[in-house]
Amino acid sequence: MAGTAKELGEERETVVTLARLAGVAASTVSRALKGDPRISAPTRRRIEALASARGYTPNVLARTLSSGRSGLIGLALGPIANPFYSELMQEAVSQAATRGLRLLMLSAGSGPIEDDTAQALLQYQVDGCLITSAQLSSRAAHICAAHNVPVVMVNRVPRLHASAIACDNFQGGQELAAFLHNGGHRSFAIVRGNPDSSTSIERERGFVEYLAARGIAVALRIDGASTYDGGFSAGRMFAEMPPERRPDAIFAVADIMAMGVIDAFRIAGIGVPDEISVVGFDGIAAAARPVYAITTVAQPLARMVGRGLDLLTARIGGTALPDEVVLLRGELAVRRSARRPA
Amino acid sequence: MAGTAKELGEERETVVTLARLAGVAASTVSRALKGDPRISAPTRRRIEALASARGYTPNVLARTLSSGRSGLIGLALGPIANPFYSELMQEAVSQAATRGLRLLMLSAGSGPIEDDTAQALLQYQVDGCLITSAQLSSRAAHICAAHNVPVVMVNRVPRLHASAIACDNFQGGQELAAFLHNGGHRSFAIVRGNPDSSTSIERERGFVEYLAARGIAVALRIDGASTYDGGFSAGRMFAEMPPERRPDAIFAVADIMAMGVIDAFRIAGIGVPDEISVVGFDGIAAAARPVYAITTVAQPLARMVGRGLDLLTARIGGTALPDEVVLLRGELAVRRSARRPA
DNA sequence: TTGAAAGCGTTACCAG
DNA sequence: CTGGTAACGCTTTCAA
Hints:
The structure is a homodimer.
Chain A lengths: L14 H8 L3 H8 L7 H13 L6 H8 L4 E6 L5 H16 L3 E6 L7 H9 L4 E5 L5 H9 L4 E4 L8 E5 L1 H14 L5 E5 L5 H15 L7 E4 L4 H13 L8 E4 L2 H14 L8 E3 L16 E3 L2 H16 L8 E4 L2 E3 L9
Parallel strand pairs in A: 1-2, 1-3, 3-4, 4-5, 5-11, 6-7, 6-8, 8-9
Antiparallel strand pairs in A: 10-12
The structure holds a DNA duplex.
């Protein structure tokens, strides 16, 4: 083991130094190391042995310069108070790794992704870009388009030049409405998420339209800002209403808000689901905890990330594929936070 | 706006194309753009104008190749079921950005960081490496050392060649023990974290030693795996004990486990802190929610990340500074999950 | 104040 | 099957 450790400050190996050591050309080393079939087995073995003995590490940046591909995917994320996005990020990191891609993380702040962030992406020659929990400003979109950097929005429907992968939020909203309606609920409220997130809007729309088709109007909509605290405040507001005016059922468009609502009810001594039903959306791990047991629509996280990377890699070769929007169906997870159909 | 958008497939600008356009040499462009004082003001302005008009983006990778610095920091993280690490990561991303650094994310799986991960870091010529929620294998440490890549562990004390920044876990453990002891508790239990995390061990040691010095032995230690579920199971175990044999106070060495413990007690109908006190460690956002209100030691997250990056950048110039371990004092946050001293 | 040229480490192309 | 050479885009001497 110690034999492979190198002195501090020792020069780093390169294809050239290896070539000299092996008595071959640099190009031969390069080819041998990436398994080019034209290199004879003995030569390859000799070079491989040498490389590993000397602890050679290829310089990906130099490779990028000459080949044009960096193996880097930019991952831009907005504020991730919502655990859904941590879970998404982890999934992305690990799936990218298995595909030999690395993630360059960019924090996008709370607004749309601006020029400087887009610039940063381009500076590092990312092969593509995954955007979650944020929108792309139109200039940023132009910049990416101009530089042939494919963009895939995850969990957002793109307003601009970009492909997207998302859960079928509209359908999920409908499904929850149906579940509650069949469960005998008749008066509904919604705790809304971020007002300019397509995700939240679609969920709400699905829910509302399903009920509207049955002649029911949603009685109340409160903003919950897609945060726990927002949900909690909303929950307190419901709790303060006279019981006879309170809705039967509440749809918080994100689990994290549903958790806040449920906690507010608990503190107020309002029984869930005995006095009021609460459903969420996302399927985050915390929503499944026994103390919440939230009935929700679980997003197919792994598949979303996988398909998202597919969309990206398909477009990376320079192949000019048209933008594509993929909607994946979420799965209704029936737990105990809502009274269920008989 | 539209004027700056470029046709799809148009060649990307480089110092060379800009130089041609401006009628100067490439080196002049390079110097002008980075504010080299030797370039005359008019020339600089002309070049700057041109660059921004044509949407020029420097290729950081090429720069790295010639200058040796990538501006990339490798961020290796283990499994981040614990929200503390999501919070840490976010903080790291944004602080790095303000320093002009970017983070390359590497998922380290659950074991120590192995050779291949270290290789990946080196391949991308990271200037330095931040490791959290994981240990560095001895080989990986050697590899980084050999390549002059400084390593800083965050929230871990290094076993090997690396600097580190952490909360003073030992002191925090003592402080919690003191708080509980002064609050009149006399029988204690610990819910342990990951058995080979220095963080957990130190917290536990601080707690145990404080009590031992007062002639009290910790009655019971249960493994909680640093997860909510682990805490929840531990809580159930306590709940099933005959009340007279149950400890007075429980120290869960991570807030996320304390949450599990508290929830288990709630389900079992055991009052916190009336029947039993629970304290945690970390200061994650969720621990402050009214339904938990966990008394805990809050880690100074922002300062930890800041000092961690300081340690790193100080070593990046090639400056061979000795390894350094910085301990920051956490702050006791007294909330309502534990009976407090009179 | 500016230009020319030589690298940085890799890959790709063209010879042989 | 292998070797040379020319890129890739930028910085950095060294000259002018």
